Amino acid sequence: MTDLTLTQYLLIGLIFVWSGFVRSGLGFGGAVLSLPFLLLVHDDPLVFLPLIAAHLLLFSSLTVFLNNRAASRPAGGGTVDWRYLGHMLAVMMVPKLIGVFGLLTLPADVMSMIIFVIVSGYAISYIFNRPFRSNSRLVDTLFLMLGGYISGTSLIGAPLIIAVAAQHVAREKLRDTLFVLWFVLVAIKMAAFVWAGVDLQLTHHLWLLPCVTVGHLIGLRFHNRMLADSSGRFFRVLGLTLLAVSSIGLLKVLLDW
């Protein structure tokens, strides 16, 4: 990132504000809803994924900790469904490790194309209000395995994982259960980055962390309002935006080839 222009830095800062907002507002999306924009600024996932991963580790653990200290807790103790969390991790672990290996070996332009294609699929599901659904134990397992693999390659497997978790975890525990799951999965990826000698962009955390914090606080403020909006308007606009950005990104990668 040291070779980028001032305009690129400003755009990256704004995108990380957006990343913090959607992560705290929706409980997921810090990567899947921001990475396509970041790749339009600089087409290399390995530059941004360590930054996104570090922010997720910090804010997911902080949110779960604060929620569990709150006076009002759901029945059953705490805000995390540890039993189902263990089941998901057991199913996802091997595909996750395979995905991490793929990220560290595939060329940047190939990974960018894969990311844009996956995000386009998610965008279409948002536009037509047809989120991924799981209807059987076999489909649950397939969704979790595929979500784990995609999470390993690019941290954007959340929609598939949520399609399963939302059917088995109580509503009041879903958000924090997912935060703990993201923490474990991202910790594995960060360990792989360190082992492979990937630049963690430590210097840039100093100025991007305040950007993410601003977005995180705004997301917390509007979380209940977004949940109360049953019209799906927010997700349709989001889907159209993501589809446009992903289409531009795919075109850019193809032209560079």
From TrEMBL:
Give the transmembrane ranges: 6-39, 46-66, 86-106, 113-129, 141-166, 178-198, 204-222, 234-255
Does the UniProt entry include the keyword tRNA processing?
no
Q: What is its main location?
A: membrane
Task: Cite the Pfam families for this sequence.
Answer: TauE
InterPro entries this protein is in?
TM_pro_TauE-like, TSUP
Arranged from A to Z, the UniProt key words for this protein are: Cell membrane, Membrane, Transmembrane, Transmembrane helix, Transport
Give Gene Ontology CC terms: plasma membrane
| Membrane topology (UniProt) | Multi-pass membrane protein
Where in the cell is the protein located? Cell membrane
Q: Any coiled-coil ranges, and where?
A: none
Family the entry assigns = Belongs to the 4-toluene sulfonate uptake permease (TSUP) (TC 2.A.102) family.
- PANTHER family according to UniProt: MEMBRANE TRANSPORTER PROTEIN, TRANSMEMBRANE PROTEIN YFCA
Q: What is this protein called?
A: Probable membrane transporter protein
- Protein's organism: Halopseudomonas aestusnigri
Its lineage opens with: Bacteria, Pseudomonadati, Pseudomonadota, Gammaproteobacteria, Pseudomonadales
